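User: I'm preparing a small set of examples for a lab meeting where we compare how different chains pack in three dimensions. I only have the primary sequence for this one, and I'd like the structure in token form so I can line it up with the others. Please keep the answer compact; I'll paste it straight into my notes.
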Amino acid sequence: MDNHAFEMHGESLRRPSKGAEWPTKEEKKGGWSLMKMFLVCLLACLITTAIGVLALSLVYVKNPVFIKDAQDNGASSPEPAEKSADFKFQFLNRLGKSKVFNYPGGEIQWARFRKDVSEYQSEEEMEFGKSINNHRSKMTFGTLRIKSKGLRAPHWHFNANEHGYLLQGTAWIGVIGADDSVVTTYNVTAGQVIFFPRNTVHWIKNVGSEDCFFLLFFTTHEELQTLDVDDAFFSTPEDIAARALKPQGGVNFIRTFKKQAEDQAVNLPPNLDELVRNATYVQSPDNLVWRYFYNLKGSAEYPFPGGVFQWARYRRNGTGLNETEKIFSESLNKHEDTLTLATLRIFSNGLGQPHFHFNANEMGYVISGCAQVGVILSGATANFNIGIGDVIFFPVGTQHYIKSVCDEDLLLILAYSTGNQLETLRMNDYFHSTADHILAQLFFKEQAEFKKFPKAK
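Assistant: Understood. Below is the structure token output for the 457-residue chain.
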């Protein structure tokens, strides 16, 4: 065969034939030399591998992050647990810690839901925002401060009605109705309520010497969608604006308007006295004004053991309301998704007893005083303290109580997510209305013992 390699292997497998000679000593020595070289190389490989493993072990001990980073690149690596806020912040917002949005004429703060979680200032603020959204609350809260002579620019909201309570100052309000463009203007002072239905253009002008401070509720749990009149103007092509407004000078006059670099949501030009020479603050007739206004501080008081309510609300058949209050009541009821507003004063050490609402979520702002709050849900409870500037939220059906714990009275402005008559059940009512033999069975207590609970008067 021509393949000598094959022939060599074949011969090495045969027994030597008679007369064949064994390999010489020199040939054996050459074979052992090759074997020694192979063993030396193998030993060198083993030593190198051992050194490498030892080096990696030392790196891991001194710098475990090296290994962690390598593992983090793998798809199966577990993510670290996210830091979670206390459960109570589903019902509590420390508004004083939230971001202040500053404008030339004032400032705004929000207790609201945000789609972009990076816009929350803290885990606690995000917990509250997610809660009002998850419960479909139809509620957002904000405070609006307007400096003297400042203006909340004319604007409208696409997706919410707006209800407000003026805590401080004096303002002139304007509301523009649909189609017929009826303009209603009125003056408002501390303790009174304002109301702007969805998509009505409205403005707020501070006409006093001190700041105006409004507490505002909006009927959406999503992000509020708002358009200011100046933004709408500058977003409209100049020729379109000229044809719509028909000014003297046409499009050339439109081009003299210059958009300000700073957001004018709350406006106060430094040269206001040069711009405005003659301002009048007209009061429209009551039959127009009371569609958007309610004199809450002058309304009837509804006392209860431990405190007193005042209401800006709808009442079936106008029960207990005067003629102007009936106008406001019907206005609330005819618009979709409106709110009921109230002030709640709880005397020092007084109690707003445990209760829940059948048809409304509840949101409130602490004006003065301090309190202990309890919220009971299915399988969960939360207890916490509140003080001035805090915002609270109670989802529909959750039992809650508020106990005043300061020397001064607790005062809150409350909003309920219904334009119909509020439906409420208190603990003493449902407890006393339950048959005593049912209670005996439930609480493992003798039936006669339940006679010790006094009946509600």
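A couple of notes for your slides: Residues 46 and 52 are 10 Å apart (CA to CA). Residues 1-29, 59-81 have pLDDT under 50 and may be disordered.

User: Perfect, thanks.
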